[in-house]
Please model this.
Amino acid sequence: MTRSRSFSAFLTLTPLLAAACTNPLPASSGSATSGGNSQSSTSSTGGGASSGEIALPQAAPGIGFDDLRFSPDLGRVLVPAGRSGRVDLITPGSNAVTAIGGFSTALSFAGGHDFGVTSADFGAGVVFAVDRTTGLLSVINPALQKIIASVKLGGSPDYVRWVAPTREVWVSQPDSDQIEVFTVPSGPNPIPFHAAKIAVPGGPESLVIDVTRSRAYTHLWKGATEAIDLKSRAIVATWPNGCTGSRGIDLDEKRGFLFAGCSEGKAVVLDVATGAITSSLANGAGVDVIAYSAGLGHFYLPGATSKTMAILGVSSKGELSLLGTVPTASGAHCATTDASGNVYVCAPDSGKILTFHDAYAPSL
Model:
């Protein structure tokens, strides 16, 4: 793989990520957290930097992760944990895990992420989660730690996203080439009801909401990204994104940059004002769910096949630079990041979440 600087310099500039390179999967310390049998462990360098892993409840024999997401409003990392039948909420800092059950479960794990609860988002004071096995959109009360309502979906779900300006929940359904829209009433019972379907031929893959511009963005599977107006629910733009296989998506809402992860191992930046590609950079292989830190201006590109995650800087002009890479695990195709520079990467075969702290200087 290509690096922008020597490995020794990488160790100096990022001691925490360097610790991950020497020990990406440290042995468990045995410190129990909430949520059954979950555990957290860390390794440290002399400078006090650390990296680690979080074992989730019912981690063995593996968990088919897909969507990972940090909710600033809830202050938790949302981990829809597939086969385990749980949505796990991780508290940054302590890495304590709160496990909320009630979804499809299985005793065996054959790989992939087509079973059980695989996507979740927070809005209106609740967590919305989709179960691919039952075809249900469920509402979780995080204070009560239980499902309070479920509604049937019109197609097999992929991503679920809260749309605050319109009080809606959008659920992408690529097998049906559509996004299903649910309206969420205000009041004590935010139970969604079906409102519309948006046709997205050739997609939709991934989904992100741009409140500032009243748009949603989603990919077509091959080489393009679409912009959808939140109020009219109409596709208003289609942009080439340079991907052979379009996969992950994220957004710098303030600076107006849209990020695409290409399955072949490439990161792409689009200007949401024009749809023009401002930069692209190849690294890794088997890219899927990407992540972006608006506070640092850093783009995280995990590769399931390469077993690596690239850390990329994004300049004020939308130009990408490779800051470094860290080893992850086989199948580690999804990532998210919190407001404190912590990065969370899924490790399906072990049913764990790998944690890293990004110590690179901001690229803003």
